[in-house]
Each structure stands twice: as structure tokens, then as C-alpha cells.
Amino acid sequence: MARPDPHPLAIFSLCPYSENEGAMLCINHPENLHNVSRQQKGGYGLDVGFHLPGSSSGTLATLGRGIGVDIYLAGSAISRIQCTFEIDLNTGFIMLSDRSSTGSTQVFGNDALPFERERHQRRILVQANLNTRIGIGGVRHDLIQFELMWHQDPMQITTIIKQNHIILRSVATNPRVARTEDEPPTELPSQRETRLHTPGQLPAIMRYVTVGHKLGEGAFGTVHQAIDVDSGNIMAVKVIKRPKGLQQQAHWKNLLRREIEILSQLNHPHIVDYITSQHWNEPQVEIFMGLKEGTLQSLIECGSFQPFVIANIVLPQMLQALDCIASNRIVHRDVKPENILYVTDPNDRSQILFQLGDFGLAKYIVDPASFAGSRIFMAPEMFQGGSNTTKLDIWSLFVTMMWTLDTQGFRQNQTYYQSQPETTVQRLIYLRDEEITFSYFNGADERIDSPLFFAATLTVWDDNLKNTHRLIKPQI
Q1: Under CATH, to which class is 208-290 assigned?
Q2: Can you give the pTM of this predicted structure?
Q3: Where along the chain do its domains lie?
Q4: Any idea where the Protein kinase domain is (predicted)?
Q5: How many helices, marked H, and strands, marked E, lie in the chain?
Q6: Is 292 annotated as a binding-site member?
Q7: What CATH number labels 10-164?
């Protein structure tokens, strides 16, 4: 007998699309009667949610004509395991995976981003406004057609899963849950590898949907939180507008290509992870990177942590990042709080991972010198036409630490310092903050250019990076 309402743990129901005959047969099949419910908009549907036993910890429902499936699909054109609805345990999003031997599962309709042959995984995101109609079986994949009727907001489901790290399941009453030995549980597929490439390569187009509010917006374009439709991965997409003038376009394209070229060859835990880019010949270029929670600037300004605590964490991590790019003969040239991104451990908010980002102004050391960067964080020698060396980034990190610790009211007086950075910041290096000494960062000739050697001078940092003592100027 059908339930009068969908199961309390149901996320969505599979309802016959336009009274499709194959779907109606599934609703009325004896093997599915325990899972049928009356829908709020009328008619009946098969509930999919946490109440089903599933075949693994990340599977909501298995559909097919085999023994032990959660939803039975009759017909010789149906595989024993036709498809599954799965939860990506990293992101909490729900994916539809085509498990059929003939690839006979597909999505249809105005909101559809269908499976594509060139992608090596037949796995696709489903949401309340995306891929809401599925077809199963036959040459045209339309013998059985269901419409997904959502009962819970997918974003709320995501939050619940990510907070609890488990999928809560009730004891199912399905008499067909026992699997036979010849049908082992179906495991989740491994995730697609990150696509690292330069603009000259032609990978499959990144298909995505944006979620939530914009992460940032400026004259360059916008940054959105996005979901990769084909993997379920969360990422950040930077949509960059092409300038109007031909000369500006050439400069704009060089900056972007330089950033992509550098990021695609770097792989370091403290450097932002580049995924892919596309649409280089269109009005807007899209660059995809790992999603972060914010910047060092936003973290300090929110006041959730003491500046000294943050300084103890960010300094050694950024030194590692600078050592990585220096070993690749790259100068970042724009190290500053808003270009240092972070993520926190969801189980322990005090565990913070910082990553250096925005390599648009970066240059190889062999490139000719040019004036670039944010003035207040720029090394003094750049105002006298100095060359590009890794010493520039060491200076910028030093100023970033002064900003973080608010040395001598540095943050509050930033507007004043911005007007004459080459002289103001030079004077500040002789002032001693109670936590750390900066006299080590004097003129360019004396400033060490190896981040790794600089890190070695921090000999009095304890194992937990909770206390620092005076930095000692190295004997060179």
C-alpha cells in the first residue's frame, strides 16, 4: 500500500513523466510497492533518500532489474544495475551514475546537461533545477521516463552531510535487501583527475553551475562558487571580461596566459590549485581553481583570531610557497594579504591552510624588470628601477607580516603609508614589534633572497608554531 506522503527521509521521488507507460509499470510493480508514496502535486512516485539501504555508504539508491536493487526496473533492455543515485561524500552533492552496459541512461528537458560520450565517466549532477528528467532503456533511452520531484533543498542536504560526515540511514523494511554472492556491492567510482593544462590544449569543456552569491566582483570580472556538473566537485570560477581596446586586450591576454602557465606547472600545498581554463577566443575567459573560504585580509578583518596566532601560521606556510616558486625561478611580485587565500579544517577551525594565489603579475627571473605590484607592499628598490629577484617577494611578505600584526598601527595608517611607501616602510623596519623583529629585512643588498634560508633562521619556533622569538639577522 502506498504511503500517504513521501517518506520523511526521502530527498526526492521518481514520478512518471507525462504518464510514461514504462514508469507507470515500475510504480505498480510488486517489488516497488513498499517504496511508493502519494505526491503533494498528485500522482505517485518512488521515494529516494536515506531510508533506503543502498549498496555502499555513499549510495542513495540502486536501480535495475537485478536481485537486491532498491528500485526494480522491469524489461529486457534494462541492465541488472542500470543506474545509481550517489552522494559525493566530499561535497554532499547528489550524482546520477549510468551503470548500464549499453550506456542507456540519459537526462532530458530544458534544464538538462546530458551525458557526453567523450567523458570517461557517465556521472552527472542532479539538483532541483538541473537534470530533473531521466530516461532509461532502449536506443533512445526513453522506455522508462521519470521526473525528479524534490522534497528537500539539495544545499541543506549538503550541509547536513558535511557536518556529520556520515549518511544517517534508518532500518529499511524492504524484503529484497539481501544481495546474492554473485552481485557484490557497487562501489563509488574514483573522482576525475584535476585537469592541468595550458590554454593551447583542448580538453573537454568544463560544465558547471554556479551556487550562492558572488565571491567577488571588480573591473576584471566576477568570481563565483561553482559545481562541476560531471564530477560534483566544488570550485571557484573566475569569469574575466575581455577589455575593449586592442592594446589592452593584448596586455590582458599576456597576464592571463602567464598566470595559467605558472599555475599549471606548480604543485604545492601552499600554492592555490589550478584546475583548468576555457573560452580563450570568446568575450569572457573562465579560469577554474580550488574553492577557498577567504583571504588573509578577510580573516584578520573579521577578528575571529588574534593576529599573532595567524602570523605564526601564515609566515612559515608562505615561506614554503615562496621557496617553491623561487626554485622554479619565478617571482610573484604581488604578495599581499588579499592574495593569500585560506581554508580551515571543518573539524577544527584553528587548523588553517594558507595558499598563495593570483599569479597574474608573476614573472620569470630572466624577464626584464618592470614596475608592478601593490605600492605599499612593493620592495624599495623597485622605486629605483631594481631588477626582478626573489628578494622582492621576501620584502612583500615582510610588509604583509607587519600588516597582519598591525605593527605600529600599520593597518590603521595604511592610507597614509600608501602615499609614500618607499620611504615610510623603509623607516618601519627599524621599529620592533613585541612579537617579532624585522631589522633582518633591511636594504636589498643585505636582504636574503632564499626563502628556504630565511625559514632556517626561524630556529626558535616551537613544534606547534605557537611562540616566536627574535629573528636574528644572518651572517652573510
Answers
A1: alpha beta
A2: 0.73
A3: 10-164, 208-290, 294-456
A4: 209-476
A5: 9, 21
A6: no
A7: 2.60.200.20
